[in-house]
Amino acid sequence: MPELEQTDILIIGAGPVGATLALALRDSPWRVTLVDKRPLAAQAADPRALALSHGARQLLETLDAWPTRAATPIETIHVSQKGGFGRTLMDRAEYGLPALGYVVRYKDLAARLQAGVEVLPACECLDETGLVSLEPEVDGAVATLERQGQTRRIRARLVVHAEGTPGDDPGVQVDDYGQQAIICDAIPDQPHGHRAWERFTPDGPLALLPLEQGFSVVFTVPPAKADALMALDDGAFLQALAQQFGSRFGFTAVGRRDRFPLALRQRRELVQGREVWIGNTAQTLHPVSGQGFNLGLRDAWQLAECLFAGGDDPGAASALAAYAASRRLDRRGGAFFTDQVVRLFSNNVPPLRWARGLGLLALDLLPPARDFVARRMIWGARAWP
Description:
10 helices, eight-stranded mixed beta sheet, D-Amino Acid Oxidase, Chain A, domain 2, nine-stranded mixed beta sheet
């Protein structure tokens, strides 16, 4: 058996949420170990786009981890439905903000966070390291890790799970939407003007997020249509995209296409003994309105605050119970909002189409109602009185 090493907090998952937690703990007295099964170079090469709220920017700036040059601001958001009346326009000027949100490539945010983690004096980061087993103990847990054929055993007083969307796990409730998201970059035939578009269709929402000189596209459709769209050549795919979006502008080029199935996954219990779950491993939301990743960043920040307030023991039951209680409103609110939006808008039922149109029109004509929705998209539960 390898020698048993000691750490205070073991974070499984060194992606943006796990790295954010490590940075939020930089002024703590605890030793932190970050573990990730992927090589760090894989994060540096990941071209996916992330939608970040202005609240996420404020959080990351506090940690000196905001990738200023890599972020494309969203100044306005246009929301509409295909085949029906009504639309809503949200503008950053209404809230006195530089932007409502931002679009950042995963690799750029990961690189900025990793640069901060690397200089933390009491933090060790182990990439290409798999978790073989985790044995709970009264005052912690022992993790058996494997890296390049070598085994390490580490005892931690607290284990934080931040490893991403869970697979088959009896502790996670899964509601399948029967939709798949096709994601890609597309170049429009005119400047995007820092406007994001959310277009609801009977197949599912279509989002165009300004990124660099083009858009990051999230094209939601049923699985059979996803198969057909993925089989098209670039020209035919751009025609299908334009048909779904409408005639406001066209597209001249498209990048690599990927797809993934969509489901609402919610872990029933965030805390079990001295283990706690944050980010996508705690809840995975539908990408509509871009709430999931922002929710995960707030998880990391709130957990750090609760651990600081809990005393010397980072795995104290009182601190973990306070964390679970403090996240209840934000988690449930985010999941309920995205779930209801998807179910209300992903159909072509005439009465619902009229109701949706009236709702969009009311949001556009009533600033207090629009303000209510916008502030909760930007700041989550912190915006609730």
